[in-house]
Amino acid sequence: MLRGEVGLYVIGGVLVASLLVREAQLLVVGLILALVAAVSWIWQRYCLVGLGYRRSLGQQRAVFGEEVSLTLEIVNDKPLPLAWLEIEDTVPGVGLRLAPAHVGPSHIPGRRLLGILLSVRWYERVRRHYRVTCQARGLHAFGPATLRTGDVFGLAAQEIEIPGEDYLLAARAVCTGKPPPVPPARRSRSSCSSRPRRSASTSCSTSALAVRTGRGRATTLKCSKR
User: Fold this and answer.
1) Residues 174, 64: contact at Cβ < 8 Å?
2) Direct distance between the N- and C-terminal alpha carbons of the chain, in angstroms, rounded to an integer
3) Is residue 188 included in any domain, yes or no?
4) What single-letter DSSP state applies at residue 224?
5) What is the span of the domain harbouring residue 149?
């Protein structure tokens, strides 16, 4: 009723009429409407000033079936409180389970909207924590997000889009443990001798051996036991 120029004309008409007919109650109604319009204009103009939003994942890589923490942080860095703040953050539509959360449909194919409605006081920081369970492999994108807020009367609203995205890579689990020990093979009886056998070619007696050369001379060779 009090939006735009039409609201200003209505308030001005009420004030002028109250002065013409000299009606005090009508004047009070006109002043209240003017106060509401002023408060609504101030909220509409400064509601997005100093408003921050951040999304953070506990890790960027996960395996199938693993849970990853998701934290959403809202900061209102100004002396003006926000009576209501609506957040719509885009999350993966399939392959991930988000809890506890209220998730609705999205205009983006294969995506869903995580809806949050809260109030933020002046100079307040609010965090919301969620658990993300990886139910499908692949690269999952979070974002963008849309923030919408306005005055306490609901007469005016402003919104801003946060274009940043965060990614979570879900891969197949890889076994990194050591393989089980292999039992030692049984030794055969043939390989369990206490001493290695010496070949006849390498062993010789300690006695002297006489070898005749081609010239008829005898040469004496002495071998020691090895």
Assistant:
1) no
2) 118
3) no
4) -
5) 51-171
